[in-house]
Design brief:
This protein is mainly α. It has one domain.
Length: about 150
């Protein structure tokens, strides 16, 4: 994406996500996803790479869902600061957990990449952490629509 594309995307994000809490939750998730993909770039073991790409695809599908939750939360409780609206505190907590779990998923993938030989369990640890991300996104959606 070029300079002007990034500028347009930033303006669209401001309009849809605001500049506060919900934008930060969305951006944290997006950064975690970017980090996971960066880890993939250096993967030398073909089997591990194949497993991690499948997990990456699952995580990438969650990105649109996180954006939708953040956009809906911004409409319900607009935020231009860091104050967590009481009625959506649980939604924010679930989104924060999703972002943190995604960061630990990227960390687990990096540990697998740095292993001298293919780990006997393969990407099982990464898969478990990715499942936690999925659970937190599911929870955020459920809490938003209760």
């Amino acid at each position: 994406m070029g300079f002007f594309g990034e500028l347009r995307q930033g303006r669209r994000d401001d309009a849809e996500l605001g500049k506060g809490l919900w934008r930060r939750a969305h951006d944290r998730f997006h950064r975690g996803l970017d980090r996971y993909h960066q880890v993939l770039e250096g993967m030398e073991d073909e089997q591990s790479y194949t497993e991690l790409v499948a997990i990456a695809n699952d995580l990438a599908e969650l990105s649109a869902r996180v954006r939708a939750v953040c956009m809906a939360a911004q409409r319900l409780a607009p935020s231009d600061g860091l104050d967590i609206p009481g009625q959506l505190a649980d939604v924010h907590r679930a989104l924060s957990k999703a972002g943190n779990s995604l960061a630990t998923t990227a960390e687990a993938a990096a540990m697998l990449r740095l292993a001298a030989t293919a780990a006997p369990a393969g990407a099982a640890s990464v898969r478990r952490r990715a499942e936690a991300v999925q659970e937190h996104v599911d929870e955020a959606e459920r809490l938003l629509h209760r």
